[in-house]
Amino acid sequence: MTTPLWIGFGFLVLLVLFLIVSFWFKPKLTDDQRATLKFLTALCAGFSGGFLTGGALFNMQRTAGATTFGVSGTAGCALFFVVWFFYPKVFKLQDGFQFAIPEKWTFRDVVDTMVQAKQSFSDFRGFTTQELEAALKSRSLSSKSLIEALTQLRLITVAPNAIRPYDVALDGSVYRLTVRGR
Q: What is the per-residue pLDDT across 79-109, written as a single tens digit (0 to 9) for each?
């Protein structure tokens, strides 16, 4: 074997060892680690392909209407882009909801403002006037979804247990808050 083939084989061995070690020691990778792994995998594929094939060229053209798009490069460059573009999705942004409750706001005020942030409406079922007018503590609220945030509100009233347990359901663009046992 020639020197470039040995170097290409070396990069291939390094790639395989890197992937084995990264998954062996870290079975649950974070999104940042997956992004780094994606880049390093593509980089190793590009280098090993470049050393193995040398100056072999890759050329792809596509025509859309009157415009022609083209991509060309060495086989190593082509392998880099193949791995980079066809690697599985690295991460997905998690849904979340964050809201700061001002001082002297009532349960109804907070619920109405929270659902308005999602261009939705609120429907209160089985609540008393005292429950709807219950004061909430001034604080920041963070949760995975608006429904989860709405269900947490009864836990931050100024007077403990001022609001009975309730369920929240999304019906189209209406958040229905229903007192349990109703």
A: 787 887 887 776 666 678 888 999 989 999 9
**Full residue range of the structural domain in which residue 31 is found:** 3-86
pTM over 0.90: no
At 135-162, the pLDDT tens digits run 999 999 888 888 999 999 999 999 988 9
Task: Identify the CATH number of the domain in which residue 126 sits.
Answer: 3.55.50
If DSSP codes are grouped into helix, strand and coil, which group holds residue 70?
strand
Mark whether 61 and 102 lie in a shared domain.
no
Strands (E) across the chain are located at 57-64, 67-74, 97-101, 121-125, 139-143, 166-171, 174-179
Considering the domain architecture, whether residues 168 and 114 belong to the same structural domain is answered as: yes
Q: How many CB atoms lie within 10 A of CB 20?
A: 10
Question: In 95-131, which positions are buried (b, 16+ CB within 10 angstroms) versus exposed (e)?
Answer: eebebebeeebebbbbbeebbeeeeeebebeebeeeb
Q: How far apart are CA 177 and CA 103, in angstroms?
A: 23
